Amino acid sequence: DAPNGTVGISFDDGPLPPSDGLYQFLQQNNIPSTHFYIGTNILQYPNEFLFAFQTLRSDIAVHTWTHPFMTTLSNEAVVAELGWTMQLIYNSTGGLLPRYWRPPYGDSDARVTAIAKEVFGLTTVVWNQDTADWSLGSSGGTTQTAINSNFDKWLSGSKSPGLIILEHELMNTTVQAFKTNYPKFAQHGW
Question: Which top-rank group of organisms is this from (predicted)?
Answer without folding.
Answer: Eukaryota
